[in-house]
Batch of 3 targets.
Target 1
Amino acid sequence: MENGAGIGVAVPAAAAWNFAPNEALLDLTALSVRSVLGRVKAGMVADGGGARAVVPMGHGDPSAFPCFRTAPEAVDAVAGALRSGEHNSYATSVGLKPARRSIAKYLSRDLPYELSPDDIYLTSGCSQAIEIICSVLARPGANILLPRPGYLFYEARAAFNGMEARYFNLLPEKDWEVDIHGVQALADDNTVAMVIVNPGNPCGNVYTYEHLAKVAETAQKLGIFVITDEVYAHLTFGERKFVPMGVFGTVVPVFTLGSISKRWVVPGWRLGWIVTNDPNGVFQRTKVVDCMKSYLDISSDPPTFVQGAIPKLLENTKEEFFNKTVKIIRETADICWEKLKGINSITCPSKPEGSMFVMVKLDLSCLQDIKDDMDFCCRLAKEELVVLLPGCAVGYKNWLRITFAIDPSSLEDGLDRLKCFCLRHKKPTK
């Protein structure tokens, strides 16, 4: 054989090799939404006759549905950037300055102070932003405070960098507000930051100005800063309007994470940002910004042509597009809220007001032959071709996360199938 490993050639035993996998990574896959959804769908067999389609209510990507297509102005901006021939080169590590200037102007509309381009760092989506922040903060013995339920990607990145994750509760009886007393009890001299997600994934909540003020005051007293995940900014459809955490940047330094993924419905374009909301210059004095720049020098960048498209994308997208998207999500949230009321064994503590999700409690005592939330979702996928995310994937066992940002008719169909599944597995009354 050409590789020399033919007949008569001894192949060294595996123990002779000097490499081995990073076993920490093997454990972290359990914290991935993709991995959990893969397990949920593993036993699912599509309807042989094609009579029923799979209803994807487990992940936050509505882009496949025609009613959620992105704005034509966004497409034109990207196409124009490509055709210009001006964005085929490497970008600077922090991102193209015109893009950063446009994002600073765009975000400053909601703030009591002006951001500069130097406050903006472009990333390959919000996931890379989380990766960068956790890497920058990591030091021996450090811990970070995370919300439960919450996006476990934060824990995965913290663990990979040797940082301890500690969880404070969100309170379902108070519209998923942060348990402020719990935060204070968890923090110690090694706590570096706390994370909030607003509007909320997975809970669909929207924080008030007053509650965010309490979060800022608490963080300031503890000597930590706030990381605020605002990828669902302005995707609100209830009484509460979105308030950015950066409003309180003079009280406590804030890292704001955002992207174009959700508001423009283009998660595959991979353009996100980290913003330093820090008028007092704390991040500069503590050299956190220098550390972040160093990390960006050795990491990958978002596609240059997408960066090049950002100024026109932000400037030209019409308000009608955003209004249409919110109108559809408001409609699907209403459908979800009303239909869930009629499903036994499932309780929805509060009507969602933002993002694309709602958390519902699963009452296993009403069901027979269902072990836990993971078993529920696997069997639902297999029997009804409906995909939900088990609560264990967001740190909330025996709850479910439902995505309602799909085509309204598909959502109604999926919720009807969910009801049929619960009735079929309902524990008989004595």
Note: The chain has a mean pLDDT of 94.
Target 2
Amino acid sequence: MMTGLHGCSCSNHTTLKLASIPTFSSPLFPFKNPTFSFHKSPLPRPINALSSAIVQTTTTKAPQDQGVKPQWKATIDFKWIKDNKEAVAANLRNRNSDADLDLVLHLYDKMFTLQKEVERVRGERNAVANRMKGKLDPSERQRLIEEGKNLKEGLAALEDDLVELNDELQQEAQCIPNMTHPDVPIGGEDCSTIRKMVGSSPNFSFPVKDHLQLGKELDLFDFDAAAEVSGSKFYYLKNEAVLLEMALLNWTLSEVMKRGFTPLTTPEIVRSSVVEKCGFQPRANNTQIYSIDNSDQCLIGTAEIPVGGLHMDSILSDSFLPLKYVAFSHCFRTEAGAAGTATRGLYRVHQFSKVEMFIFCRPEESEHYHQELIKIEEDLFSSLGLHFKTLDMASADLGAPAYRKFDVEAWMPGLERFGEISSASNCTDYQSRRLGIRYRPVSEAQVTSAKKSKGNLAPPQFVHTLNATACAVPRMIICLLENYQQEDGSVLIPEPLRPFMGGLSVIARKSL
């Protein structure tokens, strides 16, 4: 999930040169975990779920030249918006959205009227063409030729106007956020409600250190060198911190795979259009996205984007739903404007590793899987012994795609506050309508008929998409260092992570 872990805005999008983009390898399993075997994955389907068997039909995609913004259309239900104008308007107010609903409806009515005019003129042109097929007096034929020519020119002008109007309608309508779950609290972030509280904050009999002091004393980070090499809000991990990052990633992947998720590593550069289709605005004034100069590409801020695009423009097989993925990626965010003690160190950075869960499912199942995702998050954080609370986020704190969002905030003793470590969002069909991802339900006719034909196929429907953070590494490192610090300056490693760190149980000061 992209929103939440980076709650700031910037006035201008940031651009990068292509040559400056590093490449990354997949995370490795540096140590054998005696309780987990990759070759005996408990997935409910073969691990090759990415094969073409899950896709019944795929639309042809036009080639896109680098640097040229692709044209795409979201399948927005404008009639539903018009019929439910008051509900949509209330939703915009509750979310503090600046989308212009009146303009959208005006453009829709205008386009509907223009479409009727196009159809009328096209019908007249066809009628003239049909009349010219028979025997005609030369003067009558010439008159029809002139009439046909005028109709053709008029039709071309109307069709150009229709394309331009449709583009304007799409641009405005794509600013309208998803509708909101009726149980979501209305208001700003302060109105979010506590869904669950787990554990209690640790009691220390010694002065508590924050992760920056612990990292310095244990030789785990180097922010100064990273600032010289890359700029502020970058960092080097060193020594046991590197092992801790790998342990968190591999432990999280193994735990989530046990729950039936297929593992992925994703591209970390994607087309701007895919970012937009997932509900983000890569070149808006408040963007978190790094855009690459002289291209139509961006660095990802979350694996939600490339995983969401995985089945773009496809009709999925009903028998393979739900599709559950757990993806490792590096994430890149501008984080402009973030400052102060609450965001220093590893808390808010430009680049970090993350494990993201993503589900494609049938519409009637999305609320069930939303509960499943937050349960997985809570189980992971509980097994690490963290004190945390789960929040049902208020309407004004929801990103545009989210129908409902649960955030998890963990206690960070060094910061003396709770800090967000994950979120889980149900985006219903908001993203799939933009990405063109549908499925074809098995109809009763297909079940009862031995023959398969187009006549007994159910019409395709848009899937629902959900995403959730399983592990955002820097903030997890903050939690572990600050909550497991000892009086002698060492840090204990939680039991579940030790097999992934070669059996290491404590991070101790280096001997001189």
Note: The two ends are 43 Å apart (CA to CA).
Target 3
Amino acid sequence: MLQTNLLAPGHADLITHVTYDFYGERLATCSADQKIKIFRKTLEGTWDQETEWKAHDAPILHLSFAHPVHGSLLASSSHDRSVRIWEEPTGRERDGRWIERAVLTGSKGSVKQVEFGTADSGSEPRVATISTDSYLRIYSSADPSLSDWSLLQPIYIPTLPLPGTSDETPVDSSSANITNGSTSSNINTNELAIGGWGLSWCKERWWGSILCCFSGISPIIKILSIPLDTSSSSTSLLFLNPPNNSSNSPLTSISWAPSCGRAYHLIATGSRDGTVRIWRIEPPNEKLRLDYNDDGDDANSGSSSWKGECVADFGKGGARIGMVDWNATGTTLTTTDDEGIVRIYKPTYARSWKLLGQMTAEEPPHEDGNGQ
């Protein structure tokens, strides 16, 4: 694959995340130098820096653009335990730097990932965060000025009950020290060194507000249904465990694919040992859920719950996966790793995943006047 462009190295430290806006016309980068930079695509296909500003008081870890129905918004998370909501200036406010609209606090650890939820016209903007204290926090704002954000009940990921049960006993205590169902304020040092925290929203709103997440050193993916108001609690829909005789390495990244009309969903995960997995998720069959037998019992109870299976497992033994992400139609998967290699995978007609191409993130060597 050919390199088409090279962004000028403007950050003074390690770049920690890069993300596009909804239309792919702008690119945001963040860094350990505590700055955010915004680039805009030109008519010639190059990228020009539009603005930059110091956004946090510690290294920035993750960025997320909001759906354009909510305006031009950007969320950032950091080691300073905060999430900040930024809005692009307009009119007289346009001086380059984006305007800070809100600072979301409450985390007891570094906020590893932040992601805006999908949006319907007229709905409130929602943003989900996950931090090293293993809490999933979801905020929403009904304030037109975006200065007031409400926190839904924080969800402690390791102690989520199994789907279909009301038992609050922890089912996965590997992500924290747990005593009598309560979490310790001290985060395990080994977990901080090799653990991972991530989340991804379901892109299709007609199934409700649903996301998948993982925390700490556990390889288990948890899929949750998030309520639209603070009076209801979240519901565990499905837990995905690694296949038998497969790697149990901690997860490092996760991405929910756009379904684009498919009757099922795809979720991709990356692991510390280089393993990439593709999960096929089947939602409940709404038609069958209304089919009852003469006793009033659901005759197709197996079709009324979410199901999932691992349909691909590859890459074990490679470098740690840094990112997995889908294209706009959920038909191509891109991965990056600690060796700076970007790989692109696509399914074949036999439903196996084939390496379509790869490229390195290193700058190509310059040629001199003699073509050397």
Note: The two ends are 21 Å apart (CA to CA).
